[in-house]
From TrEMBL:
<dbReference type="GO" id="GO:0006355">
    <property type="term" value="P:regulation of DNA-templated transcription"/>
</dbReference>
<feature type="domain" description="HTH iclR-type">
    <location>
        <begin position="9"/>
        <end position="68"/>
    </location>
</feature>
<protein>
    <submittedName>
        <fullName>IclR family transcriptional regulator</fullName>
    </submittedName>
</protein>
<dbReference type="InterPro" id="IPR011991">
    <property type="entry name" value="ArsR-like_HTH"/>
</dbReference>
<dbReference type="InterPro" id="IPR014757">
    <property type="entry name" value="Tscrpt_reg_IclR_C"/>
</dbReference>
<dbReference type="InterPro" id="IPR036388">
    <property type="entry name" value="WH-like_DNA-bd_sf"/>
</dbReference>
<keyword id="KW-0805">Transcription regulation</keyword>
<dbReference type="InterPro" id="IPR036390">
    <property type="entry name" value="WH_DNA-bd_sf"/>
</dbReference>
<dbReference type="InterPro" id="IPR050707">
    <property type="entry name" value="HTH_MetabolicPath_Reg"/>
</dbReference>
<dbReference type="GO" id="GO:0003677">
    <property type="term" value="F:DNA binding"/>
</dbReference>
<feature type="domain" description="IclR-ED">
    <location>
        <begin position="69"/>
        <end position="253"/>
    </location>
</feature>
<keyword id="KW-0804">Transcription</keyword>
<dbReference type="InterPro" id="IPR005471">
    <property type="entry name" value="Tscrpt_reg_IclR_N"/>
</dbReference>
<dbReference type="InterPro" id="IPR029016">
    <property type="entry name" value="GAF-like_dom_sf"/>
</dbReference>
<dbReference type="Pfam" id="PF09339">
    <property type="entry name" value="HTH_IclR"/>
</dbReference>
<keyword id="KW-0238">DNA-binding</keyword>
<dbReference type="Pfam" id="PF01614">
    <property type="entry name" value="IclR_C"/>
</dbReference>
Amino acid sequence: MSYEAKNPVQATQRSLDIIEALRELDGARLTKIAEALDLPDSTVHSHLSTLMERGYVVKEDGIYRISLQFLDLGEYARSIRKVYSVAKPEIDELAEETGEVVSLLIEEAGRGVILYTENGPGAVPLDITPGKCVQLHASALGKAILAYLPDDRVETIIERHGLPAYTDQTVTDRETLLTQLAETRERSIAFDREERVIGSSSVAAPIRSNDGRVIGSVGLSGPTSHLSEERIDSNLLETLHDVTNIVELKLTYS
């Protein structure tokens, strides 16, 4: 779950706040960053200078930006997840076959993290990009994972992160969510009908280890008109299950 430091270092927190602000602002001048964080210019400048010295921030024409050094760290963090290298070729093939956006999600600290995404031919681009964090209750990918976590872990995630609404369709009631998770376990398939983004729906299946632990999930996402109940037929569900089964076998025997 999310970890709370007993003795958090304020300087570290501020540096990370600045990095996150640079991400949100898409780069900015010193004064704008300081205003966004309600900190003195001098404090922000000291942190930025240190981050520049270490290569994590660059400055061009007075604009501070996150450096590509984070790309190296992100690629490393992803590469050590065995499920990424195993699932990637299967996801690529599924995207090509279905023409939709296909993604791999894992759970980390009670939230979902997109590990990989491939757009099929003609797929409508979505905000599902590697590294993006999502609340588990608001997507098929997330519910496919939540359904196979221990009950006490699910309760802790709900307590920690809540069940915030993203659209009118988001499940924000604990009992309703638990009912959906039970249904997901019965069919090994999770659905999302515009619960995170209006106009976008998804279907996902879990990836599990040979001892039943959930490792991640693979799902298709696209416009609701593409992934209507009529289109999500038994053949599509079987294809999705085939992909997760192959990934599970490869993880077991590789």
